[in-house]
């Protein structure tokens, strides 16, 4: 086997919103940018984002980025870093204008401005009346944005390695990142991509759960690569269950359906959210609504023959509104449930949706980890942005419409910071041969012969364990058991064998690598969750029902080596405004 | 239910073959669920898929003669045996995985980005709901390739005829009130092949899983060209 080696200025792994927005900054600056994606770029999961992107444009009602910032801090249950949150909410406004200039087909208001709709957890005047802040292209906003960003990259001539799978990061002797070992999926051949800076923009890991809104490709590859390179994962116990997945299937019914005036009912026809969130009702924060639905079902007020879901009503909005504002979920409901939501309610139940945690990074996209001088030392040459990163702007719970915003703002800023970094680092780093050998050994390990466990079997086992032991409500017993089970699955990884060892487009081989990544991510979730003894945001423990700011207003850091945990403080100081001190979180 | 699946692995097979699988079909099952079950029986079976809900455009295949997105195609509607093949007219990499390079190149060839000559405003460019509505049915394309790979003109001239997908994209930008590249776009589409190889067979309209109308878009471009030439 000949090992091909290529040199680039920048290596970007992942071609969703974050990766593409970084790439376009760099390619426009005439740098040699390699974008590695395991799927054709427009297949990235950003395409599935529905409801919209938040920015205090004030097109419908008066709005301010400061209010957006307050909502995001509160939504995060005060675990978000306030400097990063301030930055994101301010940048939201020029970011959305830039997207519009690039060609995103936003829906429009009568006066020609970008259409905005209300979303959960949004307010005006620091917690008063509902705000209208989410900019939307019908309910296919992610599609509109991803396609536009791909087009901008075609224009800027970024170099795409499409259908290449990243195996592992490469490092120099000091742990600085020098590129990655990747595999051409169509030929099965390995390749070394050397770069002066590497950006991980690989998205989420929802496939760690059985019922998820996430695509098949969302297997936490970048997070696991970072873990194996010695970088910890931050706040992985905070996994968002979106309240309204299609019951039993998991595909998403956007929060925009409630933003447009839809609401939830139980089997008695009761609008039960009034009991859980008297003011915000169906537009309370996602963790609040998800817990309410699970509670309704557990207490016997679920709908359907098995009483295992609730109903989402949008039929009272009228067919015209559903057709204009929610065409995507109408199509999804027709295809997967066989109903038309313009006339019938949709059966829904929470579905694993978004990981608030990820690779610790600062607001410039630089990966930071505890080292000699403090808890946030920069890992040389390594950046992370998007869902795989934890800046942290979502803290313990993410607001709807802030995910697209996160990937766009921090993707762009990573690109700009890399430009500066490259000026200070004009030469390629020297990859440590041990690091390259380790990556190659991992690449070759599924060539092993003999009988063993099948990938699909072990993946299904992991997804079931995670669903049963790291779901919406978590007690110590449940999680302790979960941890032991995931650990047992990790031990079994050594016995995984491929029956098909051919080179050409071997999807079984890709799935084997993905399974290893999922197991590493699963371990980080259960380990971090078991140790956090409080209820905050999406992490809800009946055995510790209260938020405990004195002991737990801090970020968890999980290290793969020895499954070790460490902690670091939350950054409560914003850039230019007063800090929002923790308060009881009511909607 | 019986499924006959196209198999070809260049590492081990001298030529392609069809292989039969019996899959227990449950109510509400999509074609992708069947492909996944086949994969569970035989790990060496290769196909692309991802989102599972018809938005990423990965899992286009040819089933009983028509191009479909597997994840949003209910199995119940088919007659047995269900014959699943890769997209017609494309080089096969392995099993149902085809080489889509020509298709992507044609997309790129229409300059699929907004062209502006005026400086951009400080805030958003304005667009009335009516102007914006002209883009509906154009921007929702997921680039699955069902249309272009069911088009005989694209089969014969995949390097010269742009095909329904790229032409739909060309019209998406021509129809955008913010775009100022009309003249150069129309010039680039001129000639006997790029646009005019469309013979209005309308296979593309039938094949589109998102219910878009590339033939209609092509008609609009022709009309615009005609209007400009007189």
Automatic annotation (TrEMBL), chain A:
Presence of keyword Transmembrane helix: no
Membrane topology: Peripheral membrane protein
Residues with Tele-8alpha-FAD histidine modification: 45
Molecular function, one GO term: succinate dehydrogenase (quinone) activity
A single cellular component GO annotation: plasma membrane
Cofactor comment: Flavinylated by SdhE, about 5% flavinylation occurs in the absence of SdhE.
The entry's keywords: Cell inner membrane, Cell membrane, Electron transport, FAD, Flavoprotein, Membrane, Oxidoreductase, Transport, Tricarboxylic acid cycle
InterPro entries: FAD-dep_OxRdtase_2_FAD-bd, FAD/NAD-bd_sf, FRD_SDH_FAD_BS, Fum_R/Succ_DH_flav-like_C_sf, Fum_Rdtase/Succ_DH_flav-like_C, SdhA/FrdA/AprA, Succ_DH/fumarate_Rdtase_cat_sf, Succ_DH_flav_su_fwd
Binding site for substrate: 242, 254, 353, 398
EC number: 1.3.5.1
The protein's annotated pathway: Carbohydrate metabolism; tricarboxylic acid cycle; fumarate from succinate (bacterial route): step 1/1
Catalytic reaction annotation: a quinone + succinate = fumarate + a quinol
Domain Fumarate reductase/succinate dehydrogenase flavoprotein-like C-terminal positions: 459-587
Protein's cellular compartments: Cell inner membrane
Location, primary (coarse class): membrane
Residues covered by the FAD-dependent oxidoreductase 2 FAD-binding domain: 9-404
Cofactor dependency: FAD
This protein's record includes keyword Phosphoprotein: no
Annotated FAD binding sites: 14-19, 37-52, 221, 387, 403-404
Active site: 286
Biological process terms in GO annotation: anaerobic respiration; electron transport chain; tricarboxylic acid cycle
One Pfam family cited in the UniProt record for this chain: FAD_binding_2
Family from the record: Belongs to the FAD-dependent oxidoreductase 2 family. FRD/SDH subfamily.
PANTHER family recorded: SUCCINATE DEHYDROGENASE 2 FLAVOPROTEIN SUBUNIT (PTHR11632), SUCCINATE DEHYDROGENASE [UBIQUINONE] FLAVOPROTEIN SUBUNIT, MITOCHONDRIAL (PTHR11632:SF51)
UniProt protein name: Succinate dehydrogenase flavoprotein subunit
Organism annotation: Thiolapillus brandeum
TrEMBL record, chain B:
SUPFAM superfamilies: 2Fe-2S ferredoxin-like, alpha-helical ferredoxin
Catalysis performed (reactions): a quinone + succinate = fumarate + a quinol
UniProt keyword list: 2Fe-2S, 3Fe-4S, 4Fe-4S, Electron transport, Iron, Iron-sulfur, Metal-binding, Oxidoreductase, Transport, Tricarboxylic acid cycle
Enzyme class, first EC level, given as a word: oxidoreductase
Pfam families: Fer2_3 (PF13085), Fer4_17 (PF13534)
InterPro entries per the UniProt record, alphabetical: 2Fe-2S_ferredoxin-like_sf, 2Fe-2S_ferredoxin-type, 4Fe4S_Fe-S-bd, 4Fe4S_Fe_S_CS, Beta-grasp_dom_sf, Helical_ferredxn, SDH/FRD_Iron-Sulfur, Succ_DH/fum_Rdtase_Fe-S
Membrane-spanning segments: none
Required cofactor names: [4Fe-4S] cluster; [2Fe-2S] cluster; [3Fe-4S] cluster
Superkingdom classification of source: Bacteria
Keyword ATP-binding tagged: no
Domain 4Fe-4S ferredoxin-type: start-end pairs: 131-161
UniProt GO BP: respiratory electron transport chain; tricarboxylic acid cycle
EC number(s) per entry: 1.3.5.1
Cofactor note: Binds 1 [4Fe-4S] cluster.
2Fe-2S ferredoxin-type domain sequence ranges: 3-90
This protein's pathway: Carbohydrate metabolism; tricarboxylic acid cycle; fumarate from succinate (bacterial route): step 1/1
NCBIfam families xrefs: dhsB, PRK05950.1
Family: Belongs to the succinate dehydrogenase/fumarate reductase iron-sulfur protein family.
UniProt-recorded name of the protein: Succinate dehydrogenase iron-sulfur subunit
Organism expressing this protein natively: Thiolapillus brandeum
């Amino acid at each position: 086997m000949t090992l091909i080696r290529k040199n680039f200025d920048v290596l970007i792994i992942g071609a969703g919103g974050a990766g593409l927005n970084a790439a376009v900054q760099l390619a426009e600056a005439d740098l040699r940018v390699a974008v590695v994606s395991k799927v054709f770029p427009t297949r990235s999961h950003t395409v599935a984002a529905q409801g919209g992107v938040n920015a205090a444009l004030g097109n419908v009602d008066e709005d301010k980025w400061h209010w957006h910032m307050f909502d995001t801090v509160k939504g995060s249950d005060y675990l978000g870093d306030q400097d990063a949150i301030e930055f994101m909410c301010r940048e939201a406004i020029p970011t959305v204008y830039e997207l519009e200039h690039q060609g995103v087909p936003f829906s429009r208001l009568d006066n020609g401005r970008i259409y905005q709709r209300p979303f959960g957890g949004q307010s005006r005047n620091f917690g008063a009346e509902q705000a209208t802040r989410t900019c939307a292209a019908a309910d296919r906003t992610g599609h509109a944005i991803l396609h536009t960003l791909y087009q901008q990259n075609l224009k800027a001539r970024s170099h795409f390695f499409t259908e290449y799978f990243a195996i592992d990061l490469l490092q120099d002797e000091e742990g600085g990142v020098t590129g990655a070992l990747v595999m051409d999926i169509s030929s099965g051949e390995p390749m070394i991509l050397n770069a002066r800076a590497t950006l991980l923009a690989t998205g989420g890991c929802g496939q760690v759960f059985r019922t998820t809104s996430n695509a098949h490709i969302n297997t936490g590859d970048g997070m696991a690569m970072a873990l194996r390179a010695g970088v910890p994962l931050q706040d992985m116990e905070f996994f968002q269950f979106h309240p309204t997945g299609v019951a039993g299937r998991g595909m998403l019914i956007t929060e925009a359906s409630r933003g447009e005036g839809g609401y939830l009912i139980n089997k008695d026809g009761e609008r039960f959210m009034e009991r859980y969130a008297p003011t915000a009702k169906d537009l309370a924060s996602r963790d609040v609504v998800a817990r309410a639905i699970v509670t309704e079902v557990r207490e016997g007020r679920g709908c359907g023959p098995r009483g295992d879901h609730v109903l989402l009503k949008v039929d009272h909005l009228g067919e015209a509104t559903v057709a204009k504002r929610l065409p995507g979920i109408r199509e999804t409901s027709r295809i997967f449930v066989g109903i038309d939501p313009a006339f019938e309610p949709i059966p829904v139940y929470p579905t694993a949706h978004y990981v608030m945690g990820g690779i610790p990074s600062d607001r410039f996209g630089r990966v930071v980890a505890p080292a000699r001088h403090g808890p946030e030392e920069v890992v040389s040459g390594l950046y992370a942005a998007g869902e795989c990163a934890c800046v942290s702007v979502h803290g313990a719970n993410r607001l709807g419409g802030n995910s697209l915003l996160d990937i766009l703002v921090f993707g762009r800023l990573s690109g700009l910071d890399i430009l500066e970094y490259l000026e200070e680092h004009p030469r390629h780093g020297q990859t440590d041969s041990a690091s390259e050998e380790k990556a190659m050994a991992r690449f070759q390990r599924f060539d092993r012969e003999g009988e063993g466990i099948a990938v699909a079997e072990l993946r299904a086992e992991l997804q079931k364990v995670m669903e049963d032991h790291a779901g919406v409500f978590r007690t110590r017993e449940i999680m302790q058991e979960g941890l032991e089970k995931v650990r047992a699955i990790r031990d079994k990884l050594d016995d995984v064998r491929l029956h098909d060892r051919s080179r050409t487009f071997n999807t079984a081989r890709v799935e084997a690598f993905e399974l290893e990544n999922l197991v590493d991510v699963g371990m980080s979730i259960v380990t971090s969750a078991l140790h956090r003894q409080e209820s905050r945001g999406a992490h809800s423990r009946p055995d510790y029902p209260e938020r405990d700011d004195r002991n737990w207003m801090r970020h968890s850091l999980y290290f793969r080596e020895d499954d070790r945990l460490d902690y670091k403080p939350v950054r409560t100081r914003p850039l230019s405004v007063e800090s929002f001190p923790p308060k009881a979180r009511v909607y | 239910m019986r499924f006959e699946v196209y198999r070809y692995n260049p590492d081990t097979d001298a030529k392609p073959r069809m292989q039969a699988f019996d899959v227990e079909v449950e109510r509400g099952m999509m074609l992708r669920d069947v492909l996944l079950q086949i994969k569970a029986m035989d790990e060496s079976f290769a196909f692309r898929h991802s989102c599972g809900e018809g938005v990423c455009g990965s899992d286009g295949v040819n089933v009983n003669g028509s191009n479909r997105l597997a994840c949003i195609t209910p199995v119940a509607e088919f007659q047995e045996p269900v014959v699943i093949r890769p997209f017609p007219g494309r080089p096969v990499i392995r099993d149902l995985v085809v080489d889509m390079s020509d298709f992507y190149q044609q997309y790129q060839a229409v300059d699929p980005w907004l062209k502006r000559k005026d400086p951009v405003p400080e805030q958003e460019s304005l667009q009335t709901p009516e102007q914006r509505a002209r883009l509906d049915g154009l921007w929702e394309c997921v680039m699955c390739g069902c249309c272009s790979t069911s088009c005989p003109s694209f089969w014969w001239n995949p390097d010269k005829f742009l095909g329904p997908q790229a032409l739909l994209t060309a019209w998406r930008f021509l129809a955008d009130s913010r775009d100022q590249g009309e003249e150069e776009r129309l010039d680039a589409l001129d000639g006997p092949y790029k646009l005019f190889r469309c013979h209005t067979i309308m296979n593309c309209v039938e094949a589109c899983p998102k219910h878009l109308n590339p033939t209609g878009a092509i008609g609009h471009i022709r009309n615009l060209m005609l209007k400009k030439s007189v």
